[in-house]
Design brief:
The complex is a heterodimer of chains A (440) and B (445).
Chain A (H helix, E strand, L loop, with lengths): L5 E3 L2 E3 L3 E3 L8 H10 L3 E7 L14 E5 L5 E6 L8 H14 L4 E6 L5 H13 L4 E5 L13 H4 L2 H14 L4 E4 L8 H9 L4 E4 L3 E3 L2 E3 L4 E3 L9 E4 L4 H13 L8 E4 L5 H9 L2 E6 L1 H6 L4 H14 L28 E5 L9 H9 L4 E3 L5 E3 L9 H5 L6 E5 L5 E2 L4 E2 L16 H10 L1
Helix pairs in contact in A: 3-5, 5-6, 8-10
Chain B lengths: L9 E2 L5 H7 L9 H9 L8 H5 L6 H9 L3 H9 L5 H7 L6 H4 L1 H6 L5 H10 L17 E5 L3 H12 L3 E5 L8 H4 L10 H10 L4 E4 L10 H7 L2 E4 L5 E2 L12 E3 H10 L8 E2 L1 E5 L3 H12 L4 E5 L11 H9 L3 E3 L2 E7 L6 E10 L2 E12 L2 E4 L3 E2 L9 E2 L2 E2 L12 E3 L11 H22 L1
Parallel strand pairs in B: 2-3, 2-5, 3-4, 5-19, 7-15, 9-10, 9-15, 10-11
Antiparallel strand pairs in B: 1-8, 6-16, 12-13, 13-14, 17-18
Classes of the chains: A alpha/beta (440), B alpha/beta (445).
The structure holds flavin-adenine dinucleotide, flavin mononucleotide and iron/sulfur cluster (SF4).
Flavin-adenine dinucleotide binds next to helix 10, helix 14, helix 15 and helix 17 of chain B.
Chain lengths: 440, 445
């Protein structure tokens, strides 16, 4: 069993699996049970400033998107930050941290965009003995309308300013949680870095409406006839989150900025993928809310098996391993030629590959009268669609053509040398690339 | 003229070699990777899952299934083996339809449970023949004797060894595995799985097995008590119940367990002789297995006769259906009166039965079934238990952790009181007794 102990910006935890700031971490009762179940750390549900707490809706606050067999693949919520009194949360954080000194306890914060408001809350949080703070610049609903959360997260200057205030007023490490509801995720990350942030965490939830009731003509979830957009999370958002994490890890300006990966992490493999793209650890919300705290056991055993199989002794060996291979499109090798191949022994003759290719792609699959489906190499562009729609695993493969052979589609020899778009003869500005690159 | 199904009397080679091969192949073929993923995907990962409660060894079923679905079958196997070191055999022989799968919420909702047993096999098969997954704790210096290398004894020995004790296992026979090797239906444990599993289990080290070493002749319980810190008895049920019907001692009237043992040890099923007309008397797993395997060996007509109704039969619904699907005729509510025939049995006369005021009585009406071979399968009995141990219900009396009336002796599996006579129950009892022995020895220092 591999050692999963993780050190994230100086915060140690028995494993890299933290619970994200959300209902699972909203109170002492939950967090104690989470630690007993095996979670390595928590980011406490976002605290607001002293005074009467926020008020949540009292009707449904979630909407869901299902896959087949009612598997929950996307969750939408219109919940606000904690609706429990600040002092009570602080007392509970202190008690939990005292009893779990080796687990990570980070406190998520969201107060108005004024230095005094931030100063006022940092002291009491520090008092609890918590390991760090996370600045919630992400919540897309409710709080944003009050000039907090997502409203701050969409303005890099504010992020930089608030991060700097926090760094100047506390010795605790500061994690800046980013909203995905922005065009270029690198900008807020750069701002957090400039402000002195120790790390960024992402993603928070994505603006969304899960569905519309076609009898009442109201968005779901519907509160007394009306609905509001909420934040989307769960397995469905993982690809978006992975890309955003990679964007930050690949950006030379933030290459050294630690990342806590969030968004759809449901099992060890999701976690390892985030880590490979640069996340030092991961945070989980929806998977725990769907299946309970126990799922962390699978994450622990799975990551441990993976590390043992790859003879890794520390989770840090996974972190960033895929970053050098995550490129821009223009860097990809256009001389790499593949062709789809259908394994006739595995084929069950459903014809989905044919429909996909014939109707919507390159008419590169033939169908005989007795339902034999074959790829025509002189038409196949290796787009992969047939393989993806095929219900049988490994039935359709994409095989690389050996250099020196002829690509039947183009009639050209498959070149061994790497060549990308910047040097391609069809690129109208290809020469410019060549001209400008050396000068830069 | 070679033999065929209609050859009268008892005969071997009734079928062709390829028929035997087909008939005795795996009851359930192993799941392919894709099938396993589809099956695993149906698990809801229930909270405080009912299946876990229904498993006598309390395997964390939702966890191991989730581990399969995320591509970590080895981790799944670990989850299984940490509770049940014979998880491989249990995956094959457990009557899951009356255990974990019976209470699966998918069974409740759709009448189609998650295929827990087959998924368990998928996970555990990958570990066989590989390095043993568990390490022994530091040597404690304690020596413990285990009598019987069946599921109970093996599970006990393994857990004791894991806890750092040195174990010596004594078994009367020349091979280990107990009924896994000699009793379980051939189509449930193909390709010598029982021995593969024993070898793999013992590869943890720290366990010495002495075969051909029966307790009783030359080896007394007092010797064991003198030489070892504790003794565990997992001797199963060596005796069989008598029919108490006239003519029981005729030729060709045999104990079903002996017949099954013979066919389990045969390297070529064609050499196993079976009657043209076979009658099996009894209603448990042994009866079903004798009946089904007779049919698979080429018996022309196999009739299984049980003295009570279908619902009282201890063989599960699934087992009964398996029997009828293979062509076995099951007659309920009938008890044997006499076996007729000159020297060898030729027919069995049965009386119909009914229950009057809770008591089973003959109705007075009788019928006769032709028989060249009669198998008795009306229950096994305790045989060879050391004198002086308190018994209850014909079994060695044990408390909830397996301790007998002699505080230095533990017992588990079929020979001990409590629990069903199942492989998985034997494993649970052996394991728990090992933990109890470990606790006692640790406390004594
Ligand atoms: C025909 C048949 C089919 C069955 N099918 C199933 C099934 O499909 N599923 C299921 O769950 N259960 C089944 N069972 C029940 C299951 O096999 C038993 O519950 C299980 O094997 C009990 O394990 P055990 O270790 O207590 O005893 P056993 O498996 O009987 O092992 C006892 C061991 O002790 C040894 N021994 C006995 N006396 C002595 C002595 N004096 N000295 C030394 N060694 C001794 C024996 O040689 C043997 O190795 C079946 C039983 C039978 C008979
Ligand atoms: C009901 C709910 C409430 C949430 N509340 C907060 C919050 O108070 N603060 C915060 O930073 N993120 C909050 N989040 C966002 C999560 O922390 C997390 O970033 C997001 O759900 C993506 O992770 P997931 O796909 O694992 O759920 C909330 C999410 C949900 C579902
Ligand atoms: S999950 Fe709990 S709080 Fe929410 S609606 Fe159901 S019972 Fe009520």
């Amino acid at each position: 069993m591999a050692d999963l102990t993780t050190n994230f910006i100086g915060i140690k935890s028995p494993n890299p699996f933290w619970l994200a700031s959300a209902p699972p971490t909203d109170k002492e009762y939950n967090v104690r049970r989470a630690f007993e179940a095996g979670w390595g750390g928590v980011v406490w549900k976002t605290l607001g400033e002293e005074g009467p707490p926020v008020v949540n809706v009292n009707g449904p606050r979630y909407g869901a998107i299902y896959g087949g067999d009612r598997r929950l693949i996307g969750l939408n919520n219109i919940e606000l930050i904690t609706d429990r009194p600040l002092q009570q949360n602080l007392r509970e954080i202190k008690a939990v941290k005292r009893d779990y000194p080796n687990h990570a306890v980070v406190v998520s914060l969201m107060v108005p965009c004024e230095e005094d408001a931030w100063k006022a809350i940092l002291g009491p949080v520090e008092e609890t003995g918590a390991d760090g703070i996370e600045l919630n610049f992400g919540c897309p609903h409710g709080m944003a309308e009050r000039g907090m959360g997502g409203a701050v997260g969409q303005v890099p200057e504010y992020i930089e300013m608030v991060t700097r205030w926090c760094k100047q007023n506390t010795r605790m490490p500061v994690i800046v949680k980013l909203t995905p509801n922005i065009t270029d995720i690198r900008k807020p990350a750069e701002a957090a870095y400039r402000g002195g942030g120790d790390a960024v965490s992402l993603i928070n939830t994505i603006n969304s409406i899960t569905s519309v009731n076609l009898d009442t003509f109201a968005p779901e979830p519907t509160i007394d006839g009306w609905g509001a957009h909420g934040g989307y999370c769960g397995p469905a958002v993982k690809p978006i989150a992975l890309n955003m994490v990679a964007e930050i890890a690949r950006n030379p300006e933030t290459a050294n900025l630690p990342i806590s990966g969030i968004g759809g992490v449901s099992n060890w493999r999701d976690a390892a993928e985030f880590m490979a793209l640069g996340a030092g650890n991961v945070q989980v919300c929806t998977a725990a809310m769907t299946y309970g705290f126990k799922i962390v056991q699978e994450m622990i055993s799975g990551l441990s098996q993976y590390m043992d199989e790859h003879e890794m002794t520390s989770t840090s060996e996974i972190v960033g391993r895929a970053v050098p291979n995550a490129k821009n499109w223009q860097d990809l090798n256009l001389n790499y030629i593949a062709k789809a191949k259908i394994d006739q022994d595995l084929c069950i003759k459903c014809g989905r590959c044919f429909a996909a290719c014939e109707d919507t792609s390159h008419q590169a699959i033939s169908m005989s009268e007795d339902r034999v489906f074959e790829v025509m190499d002189d038409e196949c562009v290796a787009c992969n669609l047939c393989a993806l729609v095929c219900p049988v695993e490994n039935c359709i493969s994409l095989d690389a053509q050996a250099p020196g052979t002829i690509d039947e589609r183009t009639g050209k020899v498959v070149e061994k040398e790497y060549a990308n778009w910047t040097t391609h003869p069809n690129n109208p500005i290809g020469e410019m690339f060549e001209l400008t690159t050396p000068d830069e | 003229m070679p033999n065929d199904m209609q050859t009268s009397g008892i005969a071997d080679h009734r079928l062709t070699p390829s028929d035997y091969a087909d008939n005795f192949t795996d009851l359930h073929a192993p799941l392919t990777d894709h099938e396993a993923l589809v099956a695993a995907d149906r698990c809801y990962f229930c909270h405080d899952a009912p299946c876990m409660d229904a498993c006598p060894t309390s395997i964390d079923i939702p966890l191991f299934i989730r581990q399969i679905s995320t591509g970590t079958a080895d981790a799944a196997a670990n989850t299984i083996f940490s509770q049940n070191i014979l998880g491989g055999m249990c995956a094959r022989v457990c009557p899951t339809e009356t255990l974990c799968e019976e209470v699966c919420v998918r069974e409740t909702a759709e009448g189609k449970p998650v295929l827990i047993g087959q998924l368990q096999r998928y996970a555990t098969d990958g570990m066989m023949g590989r390095a043993h997954p568990f390490k022994r704790a530091a040597d404690t210096g304690n020596r413990i004797a285990v009598v019987g290398a069946g599921p109970a004894g093996l599970a006990c020995a393994h857990r004791l060894s894991m806890n750092g004790h040195a174990v010596t296992v004594f078994d009367a026979r020349a091979k280990g595995g107990g009924l896994n090797e000699f009793g379980i239906a051939a189509y449930k444990a193909v390709d010598g799985f029982a021995q593969t599993e024993v070898e793999w289990l013992l590869s943890i080290g720290g366990i010495e097995v002495k075969y051909d070493s029966p307790l009783g002749s030359g080896l007394s319980i007092d010797d064991l008590k003198a030489d070892y810190e504790a003794v565990f008895l997992g001797i199963g049920l060596g005796g069989v119940n008598a029919l108490r019907a006239d003519g029981e001692d005729k030729d060709n009237v045999v104990d079903a367990v002996d017949f099954i043992e013979g066919l389990r040890q045969a390297s070529d099923m064609g050499t196993v002789a079976v009657g043209r007309h076979v009658v099996v008397i009894g209603g448990g797993m042994t009866a079903v297995d004798a009946a089904v395997q007779s049919k698979l060996l080429g018996a022309d007509e196999v009739t299984m006769v049980y003295r009570r109704g279908k619902e009282r039969m201890s063989a599960s619904e699934f087992e009964q259906e398996l029997a009828t699907s293979k062509g076995v005729r099951i007659i309920y509510n009938a008890a044997p009166v006499r076996l007729t025939g000159n020297g060898a049995a030729q027919a069995v006369e049965f009386a119909h039965t009914h229950t009057v005021d809770g008591k089973l009585e003959n109705t007075g009406e009788t019928f006769t079934v032709t028989a060249d071979q009669v198998f008795k399968a009306i229950g096994q009995t305790l045989d060879g238990a050391p004198d002086g141990l308190e018994l209850t219900g014909g079994k060695i009396k044990v408390n909830e952790v397996g301790q007998t009336s002699d505080p230095a002796i533990w017992a588990g599996g079929d020979c001990a009181s409590g629990g069903d006579d199942l492989t998985v129950t034997a494993v649970a009892e052996g394991r728990d007794a090992a933990e109890a022995i470990n606790n006692k020895l640790t406390a004594e220092g």
